[in-house]
């Protein structure tokens, strides 16, 4: 099995309004998020790639343009729970707009801090 991944960072604010008011994440706060997109394949294409890193970069550029220096609650709507887990799922599904990645996408990981990660996969 071949696996490749690419990372990108963006900064954004959010709040988790569904939590109790005494929870620190209830208040508006920000993170320097890291997003990692992972692809896997049992074969390489005629170029010797699982996929071109530039194609993963196109997805990550789209995510960064959408989220960087934004309030995630405003961008995604008040009913979207802006947890790292839900952001990972959202970005995974956003990859469907990039057809060359769909057969190979294994997972998306989202980090809010250097010590915490959430991962979403449908495999």
Overall description:
- There is one protein chain.
- This protein has 123 residues and is α+β, with helices and mostly antiparallel strands.
- The chain has 3 helices and 5 strands.
- The longest helix has 15 residues, at 53-67.
- The protein has a 5-stranded mixed sheet.
- The two termini are 14 Å apart.
- It has one domain (2-120): 6-pyruvoyl tetrahydropterin synthase/QueD (Tetrahydropterin Synthase, Chain A, 2-Layer Sandwich), CATH 3.30.479.
Summarize the structure in short.
The protein is an alpha+beta fold and about 120 residues long. Helices cover about 25% and strands about 35% of the residues. It has helices at about 55-65, 70-75, 85-95, and strands at about 1-15, 30-40, 70, 105-115, 115-120.
List the helices and strands in order.
EEHEHHEE
Estimated helix fraction: 25-40%
Shape: elongated
Helix and strand content put the structural class at: alpha+beta
CATH homologous superfamily placement: 6-pyruvoyl tetrahydropterin synthase/QueD
Task: Work out the helix count.
Answer: 3
Question: Given this structure, which CATH class is correct?
Answer: Alpha Beta
Biggest sheet character: 5 strands, mixed
| CATH architecture grouping | 2-Layer Sandwich
Q: Which strand order spans the largest sheet, edge to edge or round the barrel?
A: 3-1-2-4-5
Integer average pLDDT? 96
Oligomer: single chain
Number of domains: 1
Radius of gyration: 15 Å
State the CATH topology: Tetrahydropterin Synthase, Chain A
User: What separation lies between the terminal Cα atoms?
Assistant: 14 Å
Residue fraction in strands: 25-35%
- Unreliable runs, pLDDT <50, ≥5 residues? none
Please tally the β strands and state the result.
Answer: 5
């Amino acid at each position: 099995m071949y696996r490749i991944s690419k990372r990108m960072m963006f900064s954004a604010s959010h709040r988790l309004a569904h939590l109790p008011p005494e929870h620190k994440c209830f208040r508006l706060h920000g993170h320097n998020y890291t997003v990692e997109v992972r692809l896997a394949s049992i074969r390489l294409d005629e170029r010797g790639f699982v996929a071109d890193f530039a194609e993963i970069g196109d997805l990550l550029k789209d995510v960064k343009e959408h989220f960087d220096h934004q309030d995630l609650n405003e961008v995604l709507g008040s009913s979207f729970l802006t947890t790292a887990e839900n952001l990972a799922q959202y970005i995974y599904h956003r990859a469907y707009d990039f057809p060359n990645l769909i057969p190979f996408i294994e997972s998306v990981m989202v980090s809010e801090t250097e010590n915490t990660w959430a991962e979403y996969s449908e495999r």
